[in-house]
Write a structure and sequence with these properties.
474 residues; four-stranded antiparallel β-sheet; globular; binds adenosine-5'-triphosphate; binds iron/sulfur cluster; binds magnesium ion; ABC_transp_ATP-bind; nucleotide-binding; transport
Amino acid sequence: MTIPAQSDGAETAKTPAATLTKGAAKGETLLKVTGLQKHFPIRKGLLSRQVGAVRAVDGIDFEVRAGETLGVVGESGCGKSTMGRLITRLLEPTGGKVEFQGRDITHLSTGGMRPMRRDVQMIFQDPYSSLNPRHTIGTIVSAPFRLQGVEPEGGVKKEVQRMLEVVGLNPEHYNRYPHEFSGGQRQRIGIARALALNPKLVVADEPVSALDVSIQAQVVNLLDDLQQELGLTYVIIAHDLSVVRHVSDRIAVMYLGKIVELADRDSLYTAPMHPYTKALMSAVPIPDPKRRNVKSERILLTGDVPSPIAPPSGCRFHTRCWKATEICKTTEPPLLELKPGQQVACHHPENAEDQAPQDVVLLSAAKVAIELVPDAVLAEEAAAKKSEAPAEKAPEAAAEAAETAEVVETAEVAEAAEAAEAAEAAEAVEAPEAAEAPEAVDAPGTSASVEAPEVTEAEAPAEPEAGRQESTDK
Ligand SMILES: Nc1ncnc2c1ncn2[C@@H]1O[C@H](COP(=O)(O)OP(=O)(O)OP(=O)(O)O)[C@@H](O)[C@H]1O
Ligand code: SF4
Ligand SMILES: [Mg+2]
């Protein structure tokens, strides 16, 4: 599917037909994840004794099938990026298993992972910090060839230029530097780098969230086209439900380190079964007999997301769920296929048989867990925000960006360069954390660097509903 979009200045010439081939039959399981965990230790004291752990990913199971796009959504901090880094083996899992094409890669060493890096690539969130400002586009996109010691037919330069063309950039720009490109074009460069070695699986962590809304659609459409042409398999992580809806075949919803619902896109959007998914969708009425007399309006979750250091007992969502009963507090619901193709972890799912029908008394927290806001009020708020935001924020943001661009210190660029170098070394990718971390990567004195991040923030699409409620709560 294609979303209409404005141009990001990239070449619009039709991309050359794919010459790449894939090694997996469509629909075959490419990646299988079982009980995957990542606990980041918390250390204290002189002896750095471990006093706890951030349970960023806490036992998740899913499969990715060749040729599909699996979308991953959830509130900030629920473990999406950690999951992405675990499956690309940029992070060492604490527990569980990752199998790629039937091969256990859970604890492969860097050397052992080297051949696999060709097949599994990552696109990073921020096109400003993930490209080395000191390197030309040619050097950046050809890095994977150098690192893997691959000499394509016709030479690296020719192949890189072909890739630039595939992603809609002018191959003549081979010798230009990142600061000479806009945000959308930079993300295309990142995509070209990720696709250079003809990977089978591409994990994209918030690939468009740093981009202007109109450019987001351009990049999403590009990813979509490339998937058709090159037979790629994607795992796309995003905050924005509309982006995920456009690109995904199936969607996994994460909450506090767990997958709470995994279903095909249409089922998830038309009949979500997990109360949290439903809150994320938010525009749906609540057909809940326990709340029969409550007017069905939009659901806004109240309360903060609990800490992943000490997640709630039983179902992790019970502190914010309007359907929570005693069993939810004591017993963790397993992720079960309650409808064909729809897996849900809930004792009292929506649109399906109750898994604990004997447990009918709502927890007291459940009675205040959500706020039902009339559609009219939300519409008014949205309209008010829309009319205020660009007018007030954009000039301010642009001015700020212009200032920043003027005073960018060499040291800052060097720092960014280091981070980007790390990202380029798609191999030794203990790096992406470093690559993604620094915000300030604009190269000095260019209009491209002036425009993008701040304006993007001002225009960024709305957070999922639950996230929105957090701010309402304050
Ligand atoms: N290297 C790390 N050390 C310690 N804690 C970490 C580390 N990386 C992530 N975390 C923690 O793990 C949890 C999950 O983080 P993660 O980045 O995976 O979330 P996310 O869903 O990608 O959030 P966002 O949508 O904001 O990007 C967070 O509580 C985060 O603070
Ligand atoms: S198990 Fe209970 S608390 Fe958890 S989502 Fe389902 S109803 Fe809500
Ligand atoms: Mg993230």
